[in-house]
Amino acid sequence: MYTDKSRRKFLGNAALIGITSTMLKANSSGEAFAQNKPPQVALSAKSTEQAAQGKRAGFAIHGGAGTILKSNMTPELEREYRAKLTEALMKGYGVLSANGGSLDAIEAAIRIMEDSPLFNAGKGAVFTSDGTNELDASIMDGRTLKAGAVASLKHIKNPISLARLVMEKSPHVMLVSDGAESFAKQQGIELVAPEYFYTEKRFKELQRIKEREKQQSDAPKKTSSRATTTDAQTSAQVFFDEEKHGTVGAVALDLAGNLAAGTSTGGVPNKRFGRVGDSPIIGAGTYANNQTCAVSATGDGEYFIRSVVAHDISALMEYRGLSVKEAAQIVIDKVGKLGGTGGLIAIDRAGNITQPFNTAGMYRGYINARGEPIVEIYKN
Ligand code: ASP
Predict the structure, then answer these.
(1) Residues 153, 157, 161, 166: what is their CA dihedral angle, to the nearest 10 degrees?
(2) pTM exceeding 0.70
């Protein structure tokens, strides 16, 4: 078993390739690298042998779903998203190609997205109503069905790594808040000052939401006895209407046939009362089982918890024999009927990948059969 330090060293060395921004000329259809030679990942001798035996690694990521429209995006920002998603994809796939484990690939890719201010996870997390940042994450090993989850963290730079330590170094599945951070200290995990998570973009977003909330609660209330708008309804409306995306996740199939999934988020902007969404809830935001699939979700957490999204997909495959694509679509449709928006990524044990969503867009990517990264943002 790795120590945290040695694991990080391994993750740092494991990716065999690097990509440069000049390689990242995405075309308008959302297919990165279409006009360029795709970055290639060198296969180790063992993985070449496994590939010859028909074994293949599979890897997919997401960076959140929501009202992501080309009309709201500058070409420069789009390039930044594509570059970061590609970097995370290639890092994770590099681990798998070097015959690394699916958990290592998940952790390596998610750490890259957590360290980027582009995503609502780690650096770049949304603000709570109190002006703080509270982070959640989870990871699951499809081989052992072991899982680790953390919630309401305020000082952990890479929550996905702490979730993994909970899984591997504690008898528990989920640790929250101060207790989780005490465990982190004990494990020698890096703690950061709360200011580390500050980004101007997210802070301004909080101010905008608060202003909107104030305007709505100041607006004259309806007085009909059947349609009285209560404060609770107003805040629920603002809460669910608010644009929220940027949660990150990854699913992997390694060359040994092991599936894993991980998810990391800052939750939803303006959250209060210690609100926790689906991302750190095993079975809702994250699930992996070697017999079926690995899933990472993103969207309106309350609806994803109530629909037990990630496990429901696995259950449809296990008990009804559906394909990962069919199962994932049924579950996303169910969430939509309840009123929830979002999406998910899922991979089965044969490496089939599906990435359904019911929003305008979802930052997402996968490695195709030729080992090339495909990054997409909008609906095709
Ligand atoms: N699912 C996350 C949450 O509810 C948010 C998101 O994925 O956008 O905390």
Answers:
(1) -30
(2) yes
